[in-house]
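Bumping with the actual sequence this time:
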Amino acid sequence: MIEFLTLALTVTAYLGAASLQLRYGAAHKSALSPRALPFGALAMLGHTNLTYSVLTSHTLSPMGFNEAVSLAFLITNFAAVALLIWRPVQTLLVGLFPLSAVSILLATLAPSDPFEQRLAPTVVIHIASSLAANAMLALAAMQAVIVAVQDKNLRTHHNKGVTRWLPPLQKMERLLFELLWIGFALLSLAILSGFFFLENMLAQHVAHKTVFTLCAWLVYSVLLWGHYQLGWRSRTAVKLTLSGFALILLAYFGSKFVLQLIAG
């Protein structure tokens, strides 16, 4: 009963925070809503409690698909809120919070089957860096979508809706590449820690994950090089950012979905 009430409160707080931010941002040129953050903090507290409860109710290693998605959104939310201290990423919360509500609903109401296995501390380092990289690159992907919409509206002289209250496109693109640099550094750490700490990164059951992750790393490398050496921006940056993140999704969540939900 307590868990159900916590879940209801968490979902309501997430949706409330997203709604408050959307309305306030539209009226105040994408500024952070003073009421959205307390609602978001309450939702993240409930999300943390529920995630901890789900993960400790039985030893999940590797985590199930639903639990992994929920944990990824939780870490992404913490990353976004932390970045608010330095950068105006509050627009991302409008999309992040509703998706987080869906993820915790699935993880709580439809938990995956448990796998009994203990993790070494070095493996935990690899997992933590991987999740942190996924969080930052997810923020970059969402920022890329906003940049794409803003760029299209400016090109077509459609200065209405979201474009009207967003910061200048140049500032939004600069934020996109800042997120990409952080995510790229964390992804590099995750790959290096995997090769150093895991027994075999090319074993049959993880080979596809390694290949997709390395392909994503290569895409981000090319994008960052092209931006600073050739001046790539706007549509090129958006396409490569989303392509890289699609490979990240295939590397982790795609393999989990196929192995656990389809192959059983």
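The tokens above came from a reply further down the thread. The mean pLDDT is 82.
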